[in-house]
Amino acid sequence: MFVWYRHSALTIVYLSDVSRFSKSGALAESAWNERGWTVQEFLAPNVVIFYQKDWSLYLDDRTPNHKESVAIVQELAYATGIDLRALVDFQPGMRGAREKLQWASRRVTTWQEDIAYSLFGIFGVHLPVIYGEKKQNALGRLLQEIIARSGDITALDWVGKSSEFNSCLPADITSYEVAPCTLPSPSEDEIQTAVSSLLNTTAVELASNLYTVLCDMKTPRFAHCRLSMSCIVFPVTAVRRRRDEDHATYFAYEVKAEGLNDLVIITEDKLVQFSRTRPARQAFLLVRPWDRSLLELPDFSADAQSVDDCTLSGSPSRGSLAGLPAEYESDDSDAHLRALRLIVHLGQPFAAFLLAQQWGGEYKRIASDHDIIAQVRDMTSVRHMMDVRTLEIL
């Protein structure tokens, strides 16, 4: 359908519930703006014209192409949450996957699988349409394809219930309705100050080793409902239920993990309680999914991150070499600086996943209705960030 609209000379959108005398804003309240398949009706075509119930032009706007009407495009942006540039000149593909999923998160379709099928053209994927497979499987296949092809893990940023397809995916697209977790980033001055404080510690060599390890980590692989993902791992050492905060539908747990500040996790799952003195058979991990952008390498790809030929050489993408002591003023100074900048970034709060080990050695994600925000206890203690693994998640 997306290709059909894309190649059309003109796409007519008939707003059957918008009367002749409606004012600006009626488009947002129309049933047309709630349906899943209509997203591609205004993104894919080059020329679109909106008509009201009596076949008069919407708002009596006589612009030959309503994509060129400032009033209508601005109303569309407000009504759909889609930015102006995408509305006017949309390009299908994997880039901005999390944002595109949010566009569809409030929309409905007659057939439950269609909410996923209606996005195939938006992402430029070609997958079989299998009515009767149920929405979790349909959405799971789409998300699996997005992550497998692009390596973009932002689709894993959601709150809600886990999918039966894979525990790292949501059961419903409505889980993307909430904006992705955005944490404050340090300013350039703050980064350079932190780097200077690390120069006189034992962190430099460890940081360089960690940088090399992370540079060699592969992008996620996702196939046959199994996600293989590189993570920085913090083993959980204690889980204790906070009964004073129990609710009819969820439980609150105090969680301790090696190298992290203590935190509280709210989930519908009943977790095994344990401590160092009372260990449990089942292992739990708090993990930071690895994000290659923290390496601050140039992006040479137009639609996906480059993962080959990763080295520590080359100039830092930001900052300067100012402040490095004489022993680091060599060909490796750029590498040391880049590695220390990485440590500063890893020392910031991050969105963590709680994983529970299964009998076969794989893991499952414990879903939560709230973002799990974790932070390393001491940025200079690089050893707590050295546990880097590729985990199999079901």
- Beginning-to-end CA distance, first to last residue: 32 Å
Query: What integer is the average pLDDT?
Result: 89
Cα-atom radius of gyration: 24 Å
* Number of strand segments: 12
Structural class: alpha+beta
* Unreliable segments of 5+ consecutive residues: 302-315, 317-321
Identify the quaternary structure here.
single chain
What is the count of helical runs? 12
Largest sheet: 8 strands, antiparallel
Relative strand content: 15-25%
Indicate the percent of residues in helices. Answer: 25-40%
Per the principal axes of the C-alpha atoms, what is the gross shape?
globular
| Helix-strand topology string | HEHHEHHHHHHHHEEEEEHEEEEE
Walk me through the topology.
Blueprint: H1 2-6, E1 11-14, H2 26-29, H3 39-43, E2 48-51, H4 70-80, H5 84-88, H6 97-104, H7 114-117, H8 120-123, H9 135-150, H10 188-199, H11 203-215, E3 221-223, E4 226-241, E5 251-257, E6 263-267, E7 284-289, H12 333-346, E8 350-351, E9 353-357, E10 363-365, E11 373-374, E12 388-393
Parallel strand pairs: 1-2
Antiparallel strand pairs: 3-4, 4-5, 4-7, 4-12, 5-6, 7-9, 8-11, 9-10
Sum this structure up briefly.
With about 400 residues, this protein is of the alpha+beta class.
Description:
The strands form three sheets. Strands 3, 4, 5, 6, 7, 9, 10 and 12 form an eight-stranded antiparallel β-sheet that branches. The relative contact order is 0.12. By secondary structure, the protein is of the alpha+beta class. The protein is built from twelve helices and twelve strands. Residues 302-315 and 317-321 have low confidence and may be disordered. Helix 10 crosses helix 12 (333-346) and helix 11 crosses helix 12. Strand 9 (353-357) and strand 10 form a beta hairpin.
